[in-house]
Amino acid sequence: MRVSYHREMIRAGIIFSLVLVQAMLLISILTPKNFAIAFLDVGQGDAIYIQAPNGNDMLIDGGSGESVLRALAGVMDISDREINVVVATHPDKDHIGGLIPVLDRYSVTHFLDPGVVNNTLVYKELSKRVVEQTQYTVARKGMRIHLGPDTVADVLFPNRDIEGDINNASVILRVSYKKSSILLTGDAGKGVERIILDEDIESDILKAGHHGSKTSSDIVFLRKVSPEHVILSVGAQNRYGHPHVNVLSALASIGTNILSTAEEGTIVFISDGESLVRK
Ligand SMILES: [Zn+2]
């Protein structure tokens, strides 16, 4: 009797598990995924994670250290060990430092950067991994990254090899999903913002250039982008004094909603293709 009781229990347990698995499959099939963008809280630095509705994903920059791993774990599926595309906007530590642990932890298929060499240990460590583990491409204006049927990232800059200030070599991406769009300018300065002024830059969300430093966010540029939301990717009480008061008043003058990772932590927006809404 005792044995059959256990058998019944086991059988019931198996049936229950199967029903649960079927229910979970049904839920995942019935719930179409939205487009999602997360401005990750990595302290002073940039890291932006994007997921297309088909599950393909992209990471733009990784902050300076390992904090990106915890931030990614907070927004990625626990079973997802792969990132389809990683873009390093430019080889400063607050953008590429965290990409080393990312490449150690995740399988990354494509890697893009502006093709600028930086004579630092962090750059050399990253480059070694990029060459060994990924398909590498130098990002240039006119390239389009197809993340999904309606999800693309257009490279607006650089249009050539850049020398001098590496901030101004930053890869500029305009990401769009149907009617929703986001402009990501890395640490590009006002001079670059003026160069891309004639491109299709009007966007729902703008990540303010160079963490809200006064070297970026030209007023003519801000008016043209005309963003509903502006993201400041900054560390709390950072030693650079970012964001600059002039940038904050320029943003206030265009009447946009200002959000900072220092105050909000990771900032997530989702889109059904019509509009981006805060999650
Ligand atoms: Zn930076």
Topology summary:
Layout: H1 2-30, E1 35-39, E2 48-51, E3 57-60, H2 67-75, E4 82-87, H3 93-96, H4 99-105, E5 107-113, H5 121-133, E6 135-138, E7 144-148, E8 151-157, E9 172-177, E10 180-184, H6 190-195, E11 205-207, H7 219-225, E12 229-232, H8 245-253, E13 257-260, H9 261-264, E14 267-271, E15 276-278
The protein binds zinc ion.
Zinc ion binds at residues 46, 92, 94-95, 187, 211.
Describe the fold and architecture.
It contains nine helices and 15 strands. Helices cover 32% and strands 26% of the residues. Helix 4 runs parallel beside helix 5. With 279 residues, it is of the alpha/beta class. The N terminus is likely disordered. Bound molecules: zinc ion (ZN). Zinc ion binds next to helix 3.
